[in-house]
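Here is this case:
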Amino acid sequence: MRVLAVDTTTPRGSLAVVSGDTVEVEVHVTTPNGHSRWLVSAVDLALCGLGLEPGDLDGFAVTVGPGSFTGLRVGMSSVQGLALATGRPCLGLPSLDVLATSAVGQAPSIVALVDAARGEVFGGVYDEGGRLRGDRRAGRVADLVQGIDEEVAFVGDGALRYRAEIEALVVGAVFPEVNLFLAADLGRQAVEPLRAGKGGPPGDLRPLYLRAAHIRKPKR
C-alpha cells in the first residue's frame, strides 16, 4: 500500500510518499505566503524521483484541519484532483489527531495545539494512546487546559508559541520533540485505514474549521 500524504494546514507544509511504515520521499516547505505555488510541482517531482505516476499510488491522505483556511483549501483540492484523476480513494484526518499520535506514550494525557493566531489555538485533549477526549475546540490556551491536573505532553506549534503560559498553568507539563511537518506521520497513519477500505471518494472530504473565517473589511 503506497500512499501520498499532504499537509498544508500551517505555514509548515509537507508531502510524503509512504509505503507501509517506510517514508520513500518527503518534502518540507515553510512559507508565510501559502502553499499553492509549490505543492503541485513538488508532487510531480516526488513521484518522478521514485519513477512513479499518480496512477501507481494506492490512495491519498490529507489533513482536513483545523488550520489555515487557505491552506486547507489548497491541500484538499489538490488531493481531490489527484484522487479524481486516478480513481483512488482518499482519507482525511484532523491535524490535531496526527499531532497527538506522534506523542503517544509520552504522558498520561496529550494536548495537541495548533496556533490559530489572534491569541488563540486550535486544540484537543487525548489519552496516552492518542484517543480524543471530548471535542476539538478553538480558544485561548487558559480555557483549553482548564481542569487538566496530571502529567501532560503538549505538542504542536501552538504549544511552542505559548509554552511559558502553559508551564505557568499546568504543573508537570512536558514538551516532547515531534515533527511539525505532518505529512510523513499522516501517511503512516493512513496506510492501514486505506488498506481496510476506509477511504472514500474525493467528494466525501470535509474541512474541519472549528471557528469562522476572519475577514478584514476594506478600508474606505
User: Anything to note?
Assistant: The CA atoms of residues 2 and 126 lie 28 Å apart.
